[in-house]
Every structure is written in C-alpha cells, then in structure tokens.
C-alpha cells in the first residue's frame, strides 16, 4: 500500500492562524526563515523559538501533528549536526577521533545551533501548510506573484496548474494502489529479483497509471471548457482575500521580533 | 469438502489510528467447488474487502482464509501461488491493461506463472475463445479497443491463469445489455466446463437470481444472509431494510398476490414469471 504524504497536510479547524490571510502567512513564514539566519546568538534564537511557540498555540492543531512533521526530517537534522560537529574548529578540543577529526566546544555549539535552526524552520513552514488549505495557498501565491504580470508571465495559469496538481495527488495515489493490486492478482512479483528485474516489473503499473493520468487530464480540460473556462482574464473570485485585525496582530508581533533581534545583535 | 473457507475472518482498516474502521467482522463462510455465489450488499458493506482476502491481496487482521484446506498465510512467501488458483477480476478491470497487444496482455498472468511459451499461447487462445475475442483484436493494442472489448480482454487475462476459483467484483458495471449478457454467460459456462467455483459481486438482483446457487448478503462487515436464492429473496422486508432490493419480476408477482391474484411463490427470473403467467392463463381458459 502507498501511504499518504502526511507532511504539512491541511488540518481543518478554526483558529486564529487559520483565519489569517494566506498571503500574510506566506510572507511572514519567509520573514521568519530570514530571521532565523539573522539570529546569531543563543538569546536571539530563543526569542524566535518563543514567538514560534505562541503561533503554534494559536493554531489549535494538536502538538502531535507537529511532532510527526518533525519526525520526517530527523535524518537531515542528524546529518547536518554531525557535519557541523566534526568540521568546526576553534574552542577547546573535547576529544579526537583518529588524527584528523576532533570535536571542539565550538563544534558542539554550532551543531546544536544548526539543529535548532532547521527544527524551527521546519516547524514554521509546517504551521503555514497545516493551517492553509491548498486552494487558499495557491490563491495566495497567485496574488503575491501578480506583479510579475508586468513581465508578461501568465501567473494565473501557473497557479491553476499548481492547484490542479495538488488536487490530483490523492487521486493518483489511490489509482496506483488499485493498479498494483490488479497486477498482483495476475501474479506480478514486485518484491524479488535484481534492480533491472524490479524496474521491468514496474512497467505494468506505470503504463496504466500514465495512461489514466492523461485520460483524466483530457477529461478535466473538456469539463473546464464546457464551463467556459478561458484563463484568468476578467475572472472574479468566490472568496476575496482581505486583511483583518488578526493579520495586523501577527505583523506587529513580527516587527517586535525583528526589533528584538536587531537589539540582540548589537549586544 | 469446501474449497474456500473463512474462519472468524476480521479486517480492520487503519488500525490504531483515529480513522479505524472494521471492514470485516468475524466472517465465517465456506464455498464448494462448482458453486456460483452472488455477493450483494450496500456500498461499504465489506464486499470488496472480502473478495480481496480470497486471493491474499489483503492479510486478515485476525482469523484465517483456507483454500483447499490450507491456510493461505501459512507460507506468506508463496502467496503468489494462491493468486494463480484464485483468479480475481477487479472492478473496472480495463484500467489494468498495459501491454503492446491484447495477446501479450492476456498472457501476462500465465507468463508470471512461469509456463512455456507454447502453453502460454494455448491458454491465451482458450481464454480469448471463452470471451469471444476474435483473432484480429488479439493483435491490436488494448488502447485501441472499445470499452466493452477492453473489459473482455481484461477478464480473459485472469481466465488465462485457469483459476480454480474465479472471483469477479462487479463485472458488469458500466456495460451495455449485450456486454452484461456476455459476462453472465461466461460465468455459467466457465463453471460448467471447468467445475470451478465462481464468486461475483453484483448490484443486479436479476443477475444474481438468474445464475447464482447461493447468495451472500453482507451488511456492515458481517454476514447477514448466506443461503439459496429462494431463501434469500423471500426475506423481502429484511433486504429492503438493508437498502437492497429483490428482482423486479419478484416484486411484480408479490404485488399481484396482494391484489388477490395468486400466481404462486418463488418467482425470481423473467422465465419463471412467463411460465407462471401462462399457467395462470391456461387455468382461466379451463375454468371458463
């Protein structure tokens, strides 16, 4: 069975963060990632973590969901930490492995720093995707990228393609499952043999999957044309995005955080 | 001896997650060789989950599935041999077609069995004959065929394995009347010629009444009824409660009876109905 992709799945509840404007959430998430790299000492990283914690609490998404998101990147976290641990010089040498690799106090510090940074980065983007539905997300991206229209880029089509792609991920996963089962019922052997044999054994699954993806695309295009879809020109929206007091509060928190970070850098 | 037996078969989807759902709940059934079994039930009653247990596509959460007296999960590594003996045709099987020609596609199962090229060819020809697939179609790409033709090729792909038990999940869904008849005839002929058991899931009470020996009614993962056609379709009220129905012709004769015209019981097919009516008319003429 193919497992669903669980990272950053939309978690449908009503909360402060859910009701924020999608565009603001995207911009603030990017801002937060920048802040994380401005934070060069422990105190500034700590205030980033604290403000992030307040946002987590304001999402009303169970902490378990965030832990699951974090669990997915533990390998990346460990590898980054290990590299920083062994390849940072300076400080007192704690111990040596062989004659070349030594672990220093600076190394431990940098490793910890990097790990916390990546952790906060992942959690901040998880907050955005957990609280923003894919539709709102693509609408927001379209709105944020709309200045690029002046460069004659077709932003509306890009956003439409993105939302269609997202919409069909679960459908295609289900389809793969079904085709796999029907070929297994005819004795397909997907689990044994060398690499070449396994790749060949995948063909009876990939070909029907590809064909059905094309069929679905053609059907969807027909259905859209039947409803007179003709691109973004003159198209109005069901949900018009407006800023609310919540966005004002969130932006204020971020400005305060930025001021705090600048002050801490001076110290 | 029963050919397929399930003992306390239970299957739970998404165990120990918030989405946990019991799809099968202590199912005990046994099916003999040479029987035709019709399975019916409401959407989500566990029909499809049950048939996927017969050939080991799904491993039971608890309980056992026995094929020819042997627990199919005794040697999980050899589960493929069970799939060759219990041929499963999925819903809308035409979406599984993949090879260059229909001939090669039908031969996919036998090739997986490790048979010789000669044997494979023989089996493909036999399966094609059973489904009335002409030679020129065999040489075509499956993607150039009509819906009904694709369906027949896909079913032939399972028949070519010469299974001892043929399981079909809604084989007539989306077919025209001619296509439905071809598939129903095939089921009966396959049973007669090979003495295999045939199990089919259907929403058509008429199809079930016309060819099944026994009917299995599923409801919320449990076996509600498992009996002969007359014994199941006489439980009119219970079936309605489950959101199921009885054959239209049976319903007509029940209404006639309510109107005071006694035409006898146990009419489940149009042929039965015609016979009963002509008898009634003859009786009237006689009395007059």
Account of the 3D structure:
- The complex is a heterodimer of chains A (267) and B (288).
- Chain A is mainly α.
- Chain A contains nine helices and two strands; from the N terminus they run ααααββααααα.
- Chain A has helices spanning 22-38, 42-57, 63-71, 74-87, 105-131, 134-145, 155-185, 195-226, 245-266, and strands at 93-97, 101-104.
- In chain A, strand 1 and strand 2 (101-104) form a beta hairpin.
- Chain A is flat, with a radius of gyration of 24 Å.
- Chain B has helices at residues 47-54, 79-85, 102-106, 108-112, 117-130, 135-138, 147-159, 177-194, 205-211, 229-233, 236-241, 248-258, 270-287, and strands spanning 4-13, 21-31, 36-41, 62-67, 70-71, 86-89, 165-169, 197-201, 214-219, 222-228.
- Chain B has 288 residues and is of the alpha/beta class.
- Chain B folds into two domains: 4-246, 3-Layer(aba) Sandwich (Rossmann fold), CATH 3.40.50; 247-288, no CATH class.
- Chain B is globular.
- The model of chain B has no long low-confidence stretch (mean pLDDT 90).
- Classes of the chains: A mainly alpha (267), B alpha/beta (288).
- The A-B interface holds A 175, 178-179, 181-189, 203-205, 207-208, 211-212 and B 52, 55, 57, 80, 83-84, 87-90, 93, 95-99, 108-109, 112-113, 143, 157-158, 161.
